[in-house]
Amino acid sequence: MNRYKFVLLIVLLGSLWGCSSSKNEDTPIFGGAVSSRYTNPVIKLSTPDPTVIRARDGLFYAYSTEDTHNIPIYQSKDMVNWTQVGTAFTNDTRPSFLSGGALWAPDIRYINGKYVLYYSLSKWGEINNNGIGVATSLKPGGPFIDQGSLLISKNIGVLNSIDQCFFEEDGHKYLIWGSFQGIYCVELTDNGLKIKSGSTPMKIAGKAFEGTYIYKRNNYYYMFASVGSCCEGLNSTYRTVVGRSTSLFGPYVDKAGNSMMDNAYEVLIAGSDAFKGTGHNSGIITDDKGADWIMYHAFPVGDPDAGRCLMLDPVVWVEDWPTVKDGIPSSSPMQGPSFNN
């Protein structure tokens, strides 16, 4: 979710064509795969609220809140070395169903042969003057064609209707969303572009959370979310948290069985001496060796003016709970994900 001052970075576009650290190097490993060593952040530019997809072309595409105007799109073969390939919208095509709103917290999915980009359109601090829209494209790099609003706060009766994510199971498609006013779920039509007739919002978590993402593994549904303040630079208290449930609709609980409806959670990634404001994760991505990875944003302590940069860390499952080593971002060189090329 965008809680950092909306900034135009047009003057930086020329530098975005090589935005990964020079420390990131491709390394051949067994089986003909390629892995890359990296040091966080993998994009040292403001890329808040990232969403990442492995597209049909085998490449990865990342989208973020528009600190770079019109939702920037980055491309990578390894989730480590990223290049900006464009923006989802232009000044002429950007959504406008709410006048003067900024584009925050996109979520990208592939639905029925199209790349579907859900986005929040909002003004800072106006919890009843925001909404969620959707755009489509035949290509992950765009251009995206706006399909208009999916829901608006004052019409659906949910304050701060932003920070959406998509979930599909057994042919049913759902939208989960919300920010510090409760987390809600509603069923969508088959094309994912509208709310299904007769479906009404169901509250599934309390007011401590925003930036949610639902992931199913084995018999559990995991709700990843963010708590705290996102956008106060090195004073940010943002951290990534998680709870789990045996049903999409909850109850989601912590390890002690306390409910996320009552604002309970387990901390997955907290701030450290090297990074602050560790939150708003993308989905879990499994590499070709079966290892799971998570991307999120954080402020580098050594360069806070860089903004909320793109981070990458492995996820290890312990007794059916996700863990990140030491519960903080990695800050030393790491072996990256492995993909067959």
Description:
With 341 residues, the chain is mainly β. The protein has a single domain, classed as 5 Propeller (Tachylectin-2, Chain A). Helix content is 1%, strand content 43%. The protein contains 1 helix and 24 strands. It has one helix at 153-156, and strands at residues 25-28, 33-38, 51-54, 60-63, 72-76, 83-87, 102-111, 114-122, 130-137, 145-152, 165-169, 172-177, 183-188, 202-205, 210-217, 220-227, 239-245, 266-269, 275-279, 285-286, 292-300, 309-318, 321-323, 334-340. Strands 19, 20, 21, 22 and 23 form a 5-stranded antiparallel sheet that branches. A hairpin with a 5-residue loop joins strand 12 (172-177) and strand 13. The longest helix has 4 residues, at 153-156. The two termini are 33 Å apart. The model is unreliable at 2-23 and 25-32 (pLDDT under 50).
